[in-house]
Amino acid sequence: MPSKQILSKGVISLFGKKNVCDCCGLKLHVKPIQISDGGICMLCNTICTRSPMTTIDKVKAAWDENKARLQTFSPNMTVNDFGSGSIFIDTENKMACITNAKKFDQYSIVFKFSELEEYKIEKVGEKTITKTKGGITRAVVGGTAFGLAGAIVGASTAKQETMKKGGVAVLYLDLDLGGVKTTVSIQRPPLKAPEFLDNIIDEK
User: Fold this and answer.
1) Structure confidence by residue, pLDDT tens digits, 106-134
2) Positions of E strands within the chain
3) CB neighbour class for 182 (10 Å; exposed up to 12, middle 13-18, buried from 19)
4) Residue 131 and residue 116: Cα distance in Å, rounded?
5) Could you say which of 59, 80, 150, 161 is the most buried, measured as most Cβ atoms within 10 Å of its Cβ?
């Protein structure tokens, strides 16, 4: 589990329950995320986002395993572009991690190549804009030649263009960390991310 400083365990909520994460012991100021036998903080939950019925012991074990991996994780390859997220790769131990920061840290989730189930890239916050071209002009010309009926026909023949603007590309990785499943993500994934991810999936 994350190596956070455990704050006072004597903090009691209005309902008489200790308001701390059952995994790491951190004092909580918001409602905990519920799993099968307790409540955990948002940080502890990052390792089990797709396992809502997992247990506190399994979440702790997953974080302990991640801590051990970080001690041996030695990236010899980095996939990134200017302004993109990064994929750090340890080809010798066949492990990797992704991050939006320039460096990975103690809370980065390190996964084995074999633990990657699938990935996807989606545009988040993208807006669809529809423009109509020629509607007003066609309505005027149609109305001049054929009256009201012509104006209606002229307007109905206007062409519409649909464009998508804005949004940020987000890469999602679905991982199975020894039975505890989670999804990790980065914004603006590097262009070569699909090539690397396809290769490790094909090797499974």
Assistant:
1) 999 999 999 999 999 999 987 777 777 65
2) 33-35, 38-40, 77-79, 86-90, 95-99, 111-112, 116-124, 127-133, 159-165, 168-177, 180-187
3) buried
4) 41
5) 59
Q: Which residue has the tokens 């023949």?
A: 157
Sign of CA dihedral 156, 159, 162, 165: negative
User: How buried is 124 (Cβ within 10 angstroms: 0-12 exposed, 13-18 middle, 19+ buried)?
Assistant: exposed
Q: In terms of Cα–Cα distance, which of 196, 178, 151 is closest to 69?
A: 178
How many Cβ atoms are within 10 Å of 167's Cβ, its own excluded? 12
The number of CA neighbours under 13 Å toward the Cβ of 65 is 16
Please count the other Cβ atoms lying within 10 Å of the Cβ belonging to residue 59.
Answer: 25
Sequence-distant (6+) residues with CB within 8 A of 118 are: 174, 201
